[in-house]
Design a protein that fits this description.
alpha+beta; Deoxyribonuclease I, Chain A; seven-stranded mixed beta sheet; six-stranded mixed beta sheet; 13 strands; globular
């Protein structure tokens, strides 16, 4: 009887550990600023080492990037050991124009399927709609933990900076696509949304997903504002970069990272990072 009870107790402990120690992953969203050749101070060649260094130091497992051009993404891939990326340029659906590329740790995850759609009334081809100034996209991927059957979805986007209606309609479109593509699976949504928390588009987003900065029990680290405009001496004022999750994911931490060197920021946005526990991923 004692041996049987000991076996049952051991089995219970092992089950409890597998259930409670759901594997955490570190997710980052980062607008790396497109390589503006006209900017002699903040062009890519002047700051790419700092962007790559930041990523290598903080070691996120998944990075939703915005604005990166193809050569910038290749530079990051070459300079950041262990990462690969997926995505498409917004201008032609291949390699032209800005991406919403998703970088991921090849040691931890593999891509099951992925795609890109446009934030417009014609989402399956390069296009823009409503009052948007530019074509905007959302890139997504189903990521599978290596050695496990479980997976989750990451959606990464960049909303229009001009069109208020476009931002609201983009929220609606993305939420519909999440439901179609991911169904009830765990979902992370990252991006530069170009809206602040008092905007109607934000209110629409949090009806469906949770803002990881506002999760009860988490004390956010760093400033609230995420856009710095490369201005080191001015206090940032606007929070426009977010990481949202659905109810299959629990946020453990949240930080807005203000790393700099010689009084210069690596990008005109701060990266936002959160540690997440995803239902189904176990140690």
């Amino acid at each position: 009887m004692r041996i049987r009870l000991r076996f049952i107790f051991s089995a219970f402990i092992m089950f409890s550990m597998a259930f409670s120690y759901g594997q955490s992953i570190r997710v980052m969203t980062y607008n790396i600023k497109f390589d503006d050749k006209r900017d002699s101070v903040n062009n890519w060649q002047k700051r790419k080492a700092e962007v790559i260094g930041l990523l290598n130091y903080h070691q996120p497992d998944i990075i939703g990037t915005q604005e990166g051009l193809h050569h910038q993404l290749e530079d990051i891939k070459k300079g950041s050991a262990g990462y690969d990326y997926l995505g498409a340029g917004r201008d032609d659906g291949r390699s032209k124009g800005e991406y919403c590329a998703i970088f991921y740790s090849k040691d931890r995850f593999e891509v099951v399927r992925s795609g890109t759609f446009w934030l417009s009334l014609s989402p399956d081809k390069p296009s823009k709609s409503w009052d948007a100034a530019l074509p905007r996209i959302c890139t997504w991927a189903q990521m599978k933990a290596i050695g496990q059957d479980s997976s989750f979805f990451i959606f990464n986007t960049h909303f229009d900076h001009v069109g208020k209606k476009a931002r609201e309609e983009s929220v609606r479109l993305i939420m519909n696509r999440i439901q179609e593509i991911a169904n009830k699976a765990p979902v992370v949504l990252t991006g530069d949304f170009n809206f602040t928390p008092d905007a109607p588009a934000y209110a629409k987003a949090i009806k469906m997903m949770r803002d990881t900065r506002e999760v009860p029990g988490i004390t956010p680290y760093g400033p609230e504002a995420t856009f710095n405009g490369f201005n080191f001496l001015r206090q940032p004022e606007r929070r426009i970069d977010y990481i949202f999750v659905n109810d299959r994911i629990r946020a453990l931490t949240y930080a807005c990272i203000t790393d700099s060197k010689n009084m210069k920021y690596p990008s005109d946005h701060f990266p936002v990072v959160t540690d997440l526990k995803i239902h189904g991923l176990v140690r």
